[in-house]
């Protein structure tokens, strides 16, 4: 059952550390933070990642044509910022991060949204799965009842996508639209070369599976966006469902991608 008091509260992201979720000392990690007009949240997100990262996580904010001071807020908080000259879309922005991770030899690339929905204190939970042998780890808000509230329509769409992707990859995936993820070196290589340009989260799972990578999910607490504006409007949601469903089906029957040689 949904508990609005838990889902809607505005909790500073910095406070949500998870005891025991240490970042393994032998791994160099890059947190990729896609951000479009997130000046109200991105500074807190960057500070929380750096605090939770125990000096082992660098932060790269990919600012994608924001007009609200996102880049300055991220830089002031201690992030490295790539400012793209115009909006290239979330998939291309995230792929930019994977290319940096590949070029600079990071062991793990985390994806953390810039709107504060993913308390970074939980990064260690995902990175621990990578350290245990998973290639691509998704933080799922639905594996446990963490009180995440969303509209009935959106939840229905998420359940349908979970069913579709689970069938496509041959294992249960509960949160296919989560943007809180960790990728190992093999996945970094793959995504640096191939990554869906828009609405990428769902397709990326099938892409990883088709490339023979091991996917895992771990339960996480996810918050509601507390400032800024969602990129998911009702019209875009309809387009999203059609586009993503077709992409999953086409990918399932198409040729599997292989990681590119490093440039
Ligand atoms: N670089 C880049 N980031 C984007 C773009 N669109 C969205 N984002 C960022 O990607 C993250 C996820 O986007 P959201 O709009 O929050 O999508 P969502 O989390 O599925 O939707 P909500 O639950 O309503 O927040 C946020 O940090 C956005 O700022 C884009 O075109 N380029
Ligand atoms: Mg969001």
Explained architecture:
- The chain is an alpha/beta fold and 263 residues long.
- The N and C termini lie far apart (49 Å).
- The site of magnesium ion has 4 residues, from loops.
Give a short synopsis of this structure.
The chain is α/β, with parallel strands linked by helices. Helices cover 39% and strands 14% of the residues. The chain has a single domain, classed as Spore Coat Polysaccharide Biosynthesis Protein SpsA, Chain A (Alpha-Beta Complex), CATH 3.90.550.10.
List keywords for this structure.
263 residues; alpha/beta; 9 helices; 7 strands; disordered N terminus; binds guanosine-5'-triphosphate; binds magnesium ion
User: Which cofactors or ions or other ligands sit in this model?
Assistant: guanosine-5'-triphosphate, magnesium ion
The count of domains is 1
CATH class: Alpha Beta
User: What order do the strands of the largest sheet run in, or round the barrel if closed?
Assistant: 3-2-1-4-6-5-7
Order of helices and strands: HEHEHEHEHEHEHHEH
In percent terms, what proportion of residues is strand? Answer: 5-15%
The count of β-strands is 7
The shape, in one word, is: globular
Termini separation:
49 Å
> How is the biggest beta sheet arranged?
7 strands, mixed
Rg, nearest Å: 17 Å
| Mean pLDDT, all residues | 87
Q: What structural class do helix, strand and pairing data support?
A: alpha/beta
- State the CATH architecture: Alpha-Beta Complex
Low-confidence stretches: 1-15
How many helices in DSSP terms? 9
Helix content: 25-40%
The CATH superfamily name is Spore Coat Polysaccharide Biosynthesis Protein SpsA, Chain A
CATH topology: Spore Coat Polysaccharide Biosynthesis Protein SpsA, Chain A
């Amino acid at each position: 059952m949904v508990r609005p008091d838990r889902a809607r509260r505005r909790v500073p992201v910095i406070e949500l550390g998870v005891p025991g979720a240490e970042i393994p000392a032998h791994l160099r990690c890059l947190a990729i933070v896609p951000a479009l007009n997130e000046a109200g949240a991105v500074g807190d997100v960057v500070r929380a990642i750096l605090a939770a990262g125990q000096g082992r996580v660098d932060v790269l904010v990919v600012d994608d044509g924001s007009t609200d001071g996102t880049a300055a807020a991220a830089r002031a908080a201690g992030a490295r910022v790539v400012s793209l000259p115009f909006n290239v879309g979330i998939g291309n922005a995230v792929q930019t991060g994977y290319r940096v991770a590949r070029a600079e030899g990071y062991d793990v690339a985390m994806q953390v949204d810039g709107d504060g929905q993913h308390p970074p204190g939980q990064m260690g939970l995902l990175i621990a799965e990578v350290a245990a042998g998973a290639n691509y780890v998704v933080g799922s808000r639905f594996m446990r009842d963490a009180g995440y509230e969303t509209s009935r329509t959106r939840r229905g769409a998420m359940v349908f996508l979970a069913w579709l992707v689970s069938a496509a990859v041959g294992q249960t995936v509960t949160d296919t639209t989560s943007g809180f993820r960790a990728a190992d070196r093999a996945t970094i290589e793959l995504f640096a070369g191939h990554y869906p340009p828009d609405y990428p989260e769902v397709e990326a799972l099938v892409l990883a599976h088709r490339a023979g990578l091991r996917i895992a999910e771990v339960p996480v607490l996810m918050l509601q966006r507390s400032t800024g504006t969602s990129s998911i409007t009702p019209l875009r949601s309809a387009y999203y469902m059609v586009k993503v469903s077709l992409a999953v089906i086409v990918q399932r029957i198409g040729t599997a991608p292989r990681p590119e040689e490093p440039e």
